[in-house]
Design brief:
116 residues, mainly alpha
Length: 116
Amino acid sequence: MEDKKETQPPLPPIVDQLKEYAELRFKLLKYEAIEGGTSILASIIADLVTVISMVLAFLFASVTLGFFLADVFHSYWEGFGCVAVLYFLIAMFIKIFKRHLERPLINIFIQKIFKR
């Protein structure tokens, strides 16, 4: 009986293997970029909807407070004037402590971008 040696197909040259590897790496990087981009976009859209909802709630709460204070003071201009003064004080507080408020906001944005 003759010994039959199992013949394996010849391996492709190293150049073909490197070419295939480079193509696979490029596809992987493309898919990772797509995943990262869509994840950031979805997060931005969710945050935007949340911010819009909060702004609307804040706006209606402000009008409600204005009408309540107008009822307490028996004058619309005094009620809404108190709300305006309140917002002016809040704006001045933010202006004064701007430096202390920026750093935590920057950290939050960085964490959101890098998903920590």
